[in-house]
Amino acid sequence: MKCKQMNKGGNYYEFLYNTRLVKPTILHFQLRNLVWATSKHDVYFMTNASVNHWSSTSRSLTEVLNFSGHVAPDERHNGSLLEGFTRTQISTISVKHNLLVAGGFQGELTCKLLDRHGVSFCTRTTLDDNAITNAIDIYKNMSGGIHFMASNNDCGVREFDVERFQLINHFCFPWPVNHTSVSPDGKLVTVVGDHCDGLLVDSRDGKVLSSLVGHFDYSFASAWHPDGLTFATGNQDKTCRVWDVRNLSSSIAVLKGNLGAVRSLHYSSDGRFLTVAEPADFVHIYNTKVDYKKRQEIDLFGEISGVSLSPDDESLFIGVWDRVYASLLQYNRKHAYNYLDSYV
């Protein structure tokens, strides 16, 4: 009853292409951040034990990393496991700022700079039996350096810098952490996991600034609006809640899905849209400019391995995992004046 009344019929992205040469897969039914676009033509995704790159311009598929065998770092950094890993099961990936980070079921982290040959860094975050890496967030910190944050089932959140691949912070929470996202200014972190309430914490010391009360189940997704004032959390109660840091006593909007949990959330770079992905069949694109009251609904067939907007917001990619119809869907942003498309 608290869900915002919304109108379907938004038409923000139009279908462009579906390739069945791409076969996205998932290994964990709750973790769906396995598709990442680095430009409107380039997208990275998981297929079984491999991270692959797809170019929509050349229609070519390239294997980037294969985890079915032995993977070891080519560089030397303190804390890096020089012996590497063998037959790593990948639970989540993130690709941003020329960096690819893959997380494993046993707490493994493997880092590759896209403009360098080989792997730069390998580490195991924990030896805990319940060590799965649930999510990775790559971002710029307050000083402008590239960092990444790993969320694990051992209740830990770990921050690494990319210049030296060193552990900067290790925060512990009372429950397994399923997802974290850092605010645009690098000062705040949303933390959600195996608890109905989420947390807003200080990125410097992990101090809890506020609880996020409203969801009825565990959360597996979060995302910040580029304005740094609002953010969203996605939950297994089939809703996405939008919050305002200026008043966290309650969420400012409750967005209801059709069938399942909210597994993946992404704001567009210009802040106009919020993409909300269910585990299967539906991706919703909400218009933030009309207070989330209007949306485009993309209805497809199959499990969704991941959803990603390109950095310029021009392309939307959806990974479809299905034994028969596995594919990668590409949508293009619609413009009011078609002649401008030639300049985009």
UniProtKB/TrEMBL annotation:
It comes from the Eukaryota. This is WD40-repeat-containing domain-containing protein.
